[in-house]
Amino acid sequence: MNRYETFREKYPIFIYKSFKITENTDSIEISYEFSIPQLTDFRPSWSFPKPENLSVKKDIVFENLVFSLGMAEAVSYWKAVCSPKFRIECGSLTPEQINFWKKLYFMGLGEFFYINGIQADSDNFIDIKSCGSLSGENIERPELSGCLVPVGGGKDSALTLETLTCSGMECMCYGINKRNSITGTVTTAGLPEDSLITARRNFDRSLIDYNKKGFLNGHTPFSSVVAFSAEITAYLHRLKYIVLSNESSANESTVIGLNVNHQYSKSFEFEKDFHEYEQKFLKTGIYYFSFLRPLSEFQIAGMFSVHRKYLPVFRSCNLGSKVSPDIWCGECPKCLFVSLILSPFLTDDELTGIFGKDLLNDESMMEYFKELIGKSEHKPFECVGSVDEVNLAVSLAIRKRNPDKLPLLFKNYLEQGLYNPDSLDEKYNKYCRYFSNENLLPESFRKILLNEMERIF
């Protein structure tokens, strides 16, 4: 019997016991309680800034948003033992809602199952039952307007923010916990500091101790937490649009031949599911979509590189984001990917200036390089672009550089016989004109994006 089966047998029930909302003058404090009987209780919490003269007391829509954020949070704690039964004591779900959460948990934990060697069945891996209810009432809600742009500090959200503000769109920004790259992006976009709404997320760190003891651990669909917490923020601040910055490349499976996607909760499939869930069951009137969904990572890199002012402040390194201040670690596949995808558009000196080292001449990056160009059974388990995009970026970067002074990784690419200058211009033009129809952009946003593409390419 493996660990997965052992834990499921020993801890057969996970309980979403309660959530509590405390309304203060300028904030709303939310606490959750999850329980694994015979093991422990977990108590994560959130704090959201609240506008003046606003109250959500007895507001059933707000209660439902808070309850739903708890469902998104719960997966991080449930995965420690993967209890076959999931009991909800503080809210109710219809069969259709249960199917939404089962799909999110199963698909969002694809990497977790793969890394831990777990053979899970999408129908039977979890049985969700709800036996609670919400106590609020329907109240009159005001008109919504303006955009809420979640900012993570990376190039994607910087490009979205820059494009929308330059087009005259009214934008507020949303961040989870304070980070220099987030505040730096907002101020570099020319927005005042008070345009950034920062929620505080307090993870129950006792889970880390259980992970050290051998309980199950791995990647969770964090972008779903972003989605539901952004809904709360937009609802409190009466904002109409939640404008994400996920691209079409996020739809590609991380493992070749398998439906295992590190970025599932950034995929169009999740975006569409969440959008429908919001309309049917949350009913806030907020419109959730990704502005960059029609584009590829390659296009985004090219468009972002035009705005050189963001180079000193943007960060996309998961390891570095855990260090204060925000840094590029310079040692992970995400750092290498960003360096590669920007390499056709920036100079070697600019790339070295971003990361503090020359990643393209770093021999320790060779294995990650092979994974990114498709010479491995899977891509790195990070938020990276497609294999085809990376190969195009590398080929274009090689062509624009002095052949006698190519960095180590590019020399290796040549030695493997992978560089083919034929039809490079055709591929480049194809990517520059790419615009996926799998998107939820309202027409006004679609026009803004198409105008920006035409201006740059």
Helix content: 40-55%
Q: Tell me about the biggest sheet? A: 11 strands, mixed
Query: What is the number of domains?
Result: 2
Outline, from the CA principal axes? Answer: globular
- Low-confidence stretches are none
Report the portion of residues in β strands: 5-15%
The total beta strand count reads 11
Task: Give a verbal description of the structure.
Strand 2 and strand 3 form a beta hairpin. The relative contact order is 0.11. The chain has 457 residues and is of the alpha/beta class. It folds into two domains: 257 residues, no CATH class; 118 residues, no CATH class. The longest helix has 19 residues. The mean pLDDT is 93. Helix 2 packs antiparallel against helix 8 and helix 5 packs across helix 10.
Question: Strands, helices and their partners?
Answer:
Elements: H1 3-10, E1 13-23, E2 27-36, E3 40-42, E4 45-49, H2 60-78, E5 85-88, H3 95-108, H4 110-115, E6 127-130, E7 147-150, H5 155-166, E8 171-176, H6 180-188, E9 196-202, H7 206-212, H8 222-236, E10 241-244, H9 268-282, E11 287-290, H10 297-305, H11 333-342, H12 348-355, H13 366-372, H14 387-400, H15 408-415, H16 424-432, H17 443-456
Parallel strand pairs: 1-5, 5-6, 7-8, 7-10, 8-9, 10-11
Antiparallel strand pairs: 1-2, 2-3, 2-4, 4-9
Helix pairs in contact: 2-8, 5-10, 11-14
